[in-house]
């Protein structure tokens, strides 16, 4: 079913892109019908061009992310105690979620969490990290250049759809990992420092099948100030998704 849905989305992308390109302003997110809501983009859809085009940003945020939020709220509508949990706590307790809604929570809760992390770590000017974050990257991942090379290779090698992440522990230790589909390190109680989406809808309008090129250009829009804030919050135990 996931493959059929993805084929349908990809088939519709040209029409969606045309509509997005002529849209005068970013669509207002509909009012949430549950505890979870679509966070607004923290910048204009055009802010990441030319590395990531504005039509892709609008489709990705306004349609794909919104669908995860809507489906998650629908899954939780009769489960008040679960609905009241912060998203990272809900996903850390995935094995306790009733079997009848567990797959929906896994797929859509993971998608909501992954994208809620994704938008804020972009919108920057790339470059390289500095300070304590740069020191941690050197200590645990061999330095920024090696981390970027390994990250890109992991993302390119992720078969099918998924994500590549750098996770951060409470002691500040960093690790590189990938997950399939919309799985999240939050399922294992881990925190994400930053991550990149390698689903085709994240890059196909501009890059088609050139995922490695997308991965390489993505670093041009990383917001290292926000990533450093995530690093500090993870160490302090205050980082959510």
From TrEMBL:
GO cellular component, one term: cytoplasm
Chain ranges of the Manganese/iron superoxide dismutase N-terminal domain: 36-122
Annotated segments matching region Disordered: 24-47
EC annotation from Swiss-Prot or TrEMBL: 1.15.1.1
GO MF, any single term: metal ion binding
Reaction catalysed by this enzyme: 2 superoxide + 2 H(+) = H2O2 + O2
Function field: Destroys radicals which are normally produced within the cells and which are toxic to biological systems.
Family: Belongs to the iron/manganese superoxide dismutase family.
Protein name as catalogued: Superoxide dismutase
């Amino acid at each position: 079913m996931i493959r059929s849905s993805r084929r349908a989305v990809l088939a519709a992308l040209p029409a969606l892109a045309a509509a997005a390109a002529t849209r005068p302003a970013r669509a207002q997110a509909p009012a949430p019908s549950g505890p979870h809501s679509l966070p607004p983009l923290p910048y204009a859809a055009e802010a990441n061009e030319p590395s990531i085009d504005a039509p892709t940003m609008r489709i990705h945020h306004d349609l794909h992310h919104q669908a995860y939020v809507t489906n998650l709220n629908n899954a939780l509508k009769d489960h008040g105690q679960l609905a009241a949990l912060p998203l990272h706590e809900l996903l850390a307790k995935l094995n306790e979620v009733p079997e009848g809604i567990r797959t929906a929570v896994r797929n859509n809760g993971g998608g909501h969490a992954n994208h809620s992390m994704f938008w804020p770590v972009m919108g920057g000017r790339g470059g390289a990290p500095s300070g304590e974050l740069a020191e941690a990257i050197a200590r645990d991942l061999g330095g920024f250049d090696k981390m970027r090379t390994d990250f890109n290779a992991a993302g390119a090698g992720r078969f099918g759809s998924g994500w590549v992440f750098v996770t951060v522990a409470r002691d500040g230790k960093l690790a590189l990992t990938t997950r399939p589909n919309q799985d999240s390190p939050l399922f294992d109680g881990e925190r994400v420092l930053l991550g990149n989406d390698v689903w085709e809808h994240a890059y196909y309008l501009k890059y088609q099948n050139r995922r490695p090129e997308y991965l390489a250009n993505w670093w041009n829009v990383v917001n290292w100030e926000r990533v450093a804030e995530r690093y500090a919050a993870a160490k302090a135990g205050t980082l959510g998704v």
